[in-house]
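[Meeting: bench + compute handoff]

Bench side (C.D.) handed over the final construct sequence. Compute side (W.E.) agreed to return the predicted structure before the next meeting so the bench team could plan truncations. Sequence as handed over:
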Amino acid sequence: MTTVRLPLFPLNSVLFPGLVLPLNVFEERYRAMMRDLLKSPDDEQRQFAVVAIRDGSEVAPSAPGLPDPTARPEQGPAAGFGDDPVRAFHEVGCVADAATIREREDGGFEVLATGTTRVRLRSVDASGAYLTAELEPLPEEPGDEAGALAEGVLRAFRSYQKRLAGARERSLSTGTDLPDEPSVVSYLVAAAAVLDTPTKQRLLEAPDTAARLRDELELLRSETAIIRNLPSLPATDLTRGATSLN
């Protein structure tokens, strides 16, 4: 088993290969991570791994609060993730390649990264200034009938987009061509659909592209039917979509 060790950036959201990830980095542990990444030679990729948080806080408390106003906030790279950080994270994540790391005057960073490959979390090391992890790369197998499934998912996704835009009373932009490569379709749809984090995580962990597409086809049909039969759409962005503070 081949593994790699990379800095670990836990988030309350799921990153998929090929998708862009903007980050506003302000916590000291992640500032230290970005400073180290900037030390890499210009011809090397500046990579870190993103995992979705299963149980914990994306941003560590910085001041005393409830239930004990006198308690000292946690410090260190694993703050907010308990005594055994690996249990706080989902097992499968995604490597991010930071194309842009820009330091601000306040010492924070603006980062623009892109998901590249899926990885399985094997262990977490909290001995440094930030978390690092041993990761096993996961190949993306096509599975059976991935091409035909991708066509069906694209049709279902277009219908879903129209229903969603109508429910939100927004115009639908149709000028952008959607991809036709099955794995790209599967990741794009998984990222773009309004789904909760556990569902997106399930899609990321799919054993192959065809399995992910089959799951997405059922989800899109179900979500489209729900939107069609509702007189108005609830605030799904607030109730089902996570917001990253970093």
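W.E. noted at the follow-up: Confidence is low (pLDDT under 50) at residues 171-175, 233-243. C.D. will use this when planning the next construct.
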